[in-house]
Amino acid sequence: MFANTVRSLLPRRAQSHFKRNLHKPFVKIVEVGPRDGLQNEPTHVPTDVKIEFINKLSETGLQSIEVTSFVSPKWVPQMGDNTEVFTKIAKKPSISYPVLVPNVKGLEAAVSVGAKEIAVFASASEGFSRKNTNCSTQEGVNRIKEIVEKTKSLDSTLRIRGYISCVVGCPYDGYIQPKAVTTICESLLSLGCYEISLGDTIGVGTRSTMEKMIKDLLKITSADKLAIHCHDTYGQALVNICTALDLGIRVVDSSVSGLGGCPYAAGATGNVASEDLVYMLHGMGAETGVDLKKLISAGHFISEKIKKPTASRVNKAMYKKYFQ
Ligand SMILES: CC(C)(COP(=O)([O-])OP(=O)([O-])OC[C@H]1O[C@@H](n2cnc3c(N)ncnc32)[C@H](O)[C@@H]1OP(=O)([O-])[O-])[C@@H](O)C(=O)NCCC(=O)NCCSC(=O)C[C@@](C)(O)CC(=O)[O-]
């Protein structure tokens, strides 16, 4: 369905997500490994390793790489080297390097180092909002409003991407009703986020819960305003991504080597592995602009450095074929 219906589902504004090759739909991948992937690592990953990792990712053809976060280092010590990472990576003009910010303090720090894109985050569930950001969901939206207001005086050209966490399930509150997601999504879009990434933070979503949630969202916005962000705890990520693709979403977040988890979502594993996602998309006839071999090399590099076997099945299957 995905390949055949892609053009008929495609809203006008999403045309930029497609190459001019009319036969191949384009899916944009937002690589979140350096931020979402590494934030939960218990042992400090040396800053020069992070920089080399991001530089390798920059060579793969990815268009967007979330490189760090400007959150409180008391809450997430692993991201405490944000300034050094952001300023020392070799940036390519064709790539966006968003950073995650939780409040005006984070925004000011991000802008001071030259960030051109930030990601803000809210939760569809009260429980996760309190554990992750020490505030209610409404207070979280209010903080985002403050961030947006501040960008007007700091840098009005800054691009702002929004995340909603726990879109189908929360480690503290259980199942999340689609209405909670729709409400937050409407707020973030009205504040000016150019895109909302829907986070299945603990990977509990199934095809049916994802479909219900996205279909509700499509009553208030269009698919080109949405992205999907699936953790793979229950092995449902690729299926859930296919569900999102079938409903017209063309931006997918992923983490090379399947790195990651959230420090405030105990037990959640990493995002869908970028290598597995690219392999699947290319196999479906979609274009990503990503060189799978280079991606596998970047995934292997970081897995070796953090001394963890890759969680990417494609990496496991193909690394030897390419490199040994
Ligand atoms: C929101 C806060 C700050 C509230 O934390 P708080 O403790 O309520 O805030 P506070 O204002 O009292 O600040 C506490 C201390 O942190 C400092 N501080 C405050 N802000 C900053 C900042 N920006 N940068 C640097 N320092 C900061 C502040 O100055 C103070 O320092 P002190 O006076 O004690 O020395 C905290 O809860 C926080 O940083 N939370 C972030 C947690 C996080 O990063 N979680 C992971 C990312 S979200 C995620 O992974 C989900 C996602 C996006 O991937 C999608 C998905 O999968 O669903």
Largest sheet: 9 strands, parallel
Would you report the number of β strands?
A: 11
Radius of gyration equals 18 Å
Bound molecules: 3-hydroxy-3-methylglutaryl-coenzyme A
Mean pLDDT equals 93
**Order of strands across the biggest sheet?**
2-1-11-10-9-6-5-4-3
Basic shape: globular
Low-confidence stretches: 3-22
How much helix is in the residues? 40-55%
Pathway: Metabolic intermediate metabolism; (S)-3-hydroxy-3-methylglutaryl-CoA degradation; acetoacetate from (S)-3-hydroxy-3-methylglutaryl-CoA: step 1/1
InterPro entries: Aldolase_TIM, HMGL, PYR_CT
Catalytic activity: (3S)-3-hydroxy-3-methylglutaryl-CoA = acetoacetate + acetyl-CoA
GO molecular function, one term: metal ion binding
Q: Your description of this structure?
A:
By secondary structure, this protein is an alpha/beta fold. The protein has a single domain (2-11, 24-323), classed as Alpha-Beta Barrel (TIM Barrel), CATH 3.20.20.70. 42% of the residues lie in helices and 13% in strands. Strand 7 and strand 8 form a beta hairpin. Helix 12 (292-305) crosses helix 13. The radius of gyration is 18 Å and the shape is globular. The chain binds 3-hydroxy-3-methylglutaryl-coenzyme A (HMG). Pathway: Metabolic intermediate metabolism; (S)-3-hydroxy-3-methylglutaryl-CoA degradation; acetoacetate from (S)-3-hydroxy-3-methylglutaryl-CoA: step 1/1. This is hydroxymethylglutaryl-CoA lyase. One of its GO terms (biological process) is L-leucine catabolic process. Its EC number is 4.1.3.4.
